[in-house]
UniProtKB/TrEMBL annotation:
Protein name: Glutamate synthase
Transmembrane spans: none
Pfam families found in the cross-reference section: FAD_binding_3
Record keywords, A-Z: Monooxygenase, Oxidoreductase
Organism in which the protein naturally occurs: Paramylibacter ulvae
Span of domain FAD-binding: 2-330
Taxonomic classification: Bacteria, Pseudomonadati, Pseudomonadota, Alphaproteobacteria, Rhodobacterales
């Protein structure tokens, strides 16, 4: 098939690698003049790691990332543990792989180039139309290319090709990347968070290393109201640093590395799912078809799983590949979207009631068997089959 992939992020590159290896003729169209990742740290859960393994890059990702065996969060008033999820025994086979987007992008980019994937930079798609002879793609600079047998929309949350209308979430977060400090009491194999009700959340995620830099890194994040970034920038940086340290003294060696407001980048979140993630010779993957907050740590995994299910459907059921892709991802994506919608306000909202339910009802229940095992499966991404009807991920 002749295929166009719009978007050169995780989902786009993963799709390109799989389909190139299947022998399709494809081009990745990237809006940037020089391809680069957008964002800070992320966690590749075990199901996502299986996709990376199928791409032949998991070992590189493990070398660059940090293995996370425990996710732990405390409220600030009494230091009560309200998030306590273990992947398994420390040093075991099951873990979350924390990695900077730049490192994962570099790994996928090198793999795509090694197998000859064609990437066209400076092509920002604005429209796509279908005809009897194929689908065309029009770009911002006025050119139209095609026809293609298939266009894969991997252009992310703001994709101009996706009909998804998402609901803005009231809270987002500012993210920054810092060096992992010497002498900190925090462990480099844990994701740690602190919550002041649901209004303030601060966290540290170990990241491993960046491309061409062997210094261990960490992602520092702090929740903010969706429209609160400008106000935050207008206040003294030292005021925010003091507020953060007052809530969580252990965070001081991380927060003190932030020297400017520009060291922290605002991420805004939305929620929504396309009921039908395809149309005539056009299919949507990743954030172009489902968007959610990062509370369950599934964003990158969803993009990888979408790419896998779509590529496998093209390989094994070419006559109805898009319908099969939609069926394969329906239940997994739907369940995780629903859980993200339900849990997010307990950790990021202005509610005073939901944090009480979180701390005094859900947190105690989370340690009663079999709930811990269910939570582990939830975080790992394996609560339900992630790609029903296609070849299982080994």
């Amino acid at each position: 098939m002749k295929i166009a992939i719009v978007g050169c992020g995780i989902g786009g590159l993963a799709s390109a690698i799989m389909l190139q290896e299947q022998g399709h003729e494809l081009t990745v169209f990237d809006q940037f003049e020089t391809s680069a990742p957008v964002g800070s740290g992320l966690v590749i859960q075990p199901v996502g790691q299986r996709v990376l393994s199928s791409l032949g890059v998991l070992h590189h990702a493990i070398d660059a990332g940090a293995k996370i065996f425990h996710m732990l969060g405390h409220e600030t008033k009494r230091n009560r543990a309200v998030l306590n999820v273990a992947y398994g025994a420390k040093g075991g086979a099951d873990f979350g792989l924390a990695i900077h987007r730049a490192a994962l992008f570099d790994i996928l980019w090198k793999r795509a180039n090694a197998i000859g994937v064609a990437i066209a930079n400076g092509h920002k798609a604005i429209h796509s139309t279908a005809s009897d002879i194929g689908r065309m793609v029009t770009f911002e600079h006025g050119t139209t290319v095609g026809p293609f047998d298939l266009v894969i929309d991997a252009a992310g949350a703001n994709s101009p090709l996706s009909p998804l209308v998402a609901r803005d979430l009231s809270y987002g977060a500012i993210w920054g990347t810092v060096d992992w400090p010497n002498g900190t009491s925090l462990a480099q194999d844990e994701l740690r968070q602190k919550y002041h009700r649901a209004k303030n959340m601060i966290g540290i995620l170990p990241l491993g290393t960046m491309p061409n830099d062997n210094t261990p890194k960490a992602a520092l994040f702090w929740s903010l109201p969706r429209n609160g970034y400008n106000t935050w920038k207008q206040n003294l940086l030292s005021q925010w640093q003091n507020d953060a340290i007052a809530l969580w003294p252990e965070i001081e060696p991380f927060v003190s590395q932030i020297k400017s407001h520009d060291d922290m980048t605002m991420a805004k979140y939305s929620h929504g799912t396309l009921r039908r993630p395809y149309s005539d010779r056009l299919v949507h993957v990743g954030d172009a078809t489902h968007r959610a907050s990062p509370q369950l740590g599934q964003g990158a995994n969803m993009a990888l799983l979408d790419a896998y299910a779509m590529a496998e459907s093209l390989r094994t059921k070419p006559s109805n590949a898009l319908e099969n892709y939609a069926r394969a991802r329906k239940w997994h994506a739907g369940i995780y979207q629903a859980m993200s919608w339900a849990f997010t306000p307990m950790y990021q909202s202005d509610s005073r009631l939901l944090p009480i339910l979180r701390d005094y009802l859900l947190a105690p229940a989370s340690v009663v068997p079999p709930v811990p095992q269910i939570l582990t499966k939830l975080v790992c991404g394996s609560l339900v089959n992630p790609a029903r009807g296609v070849a299982p991920l080994d």
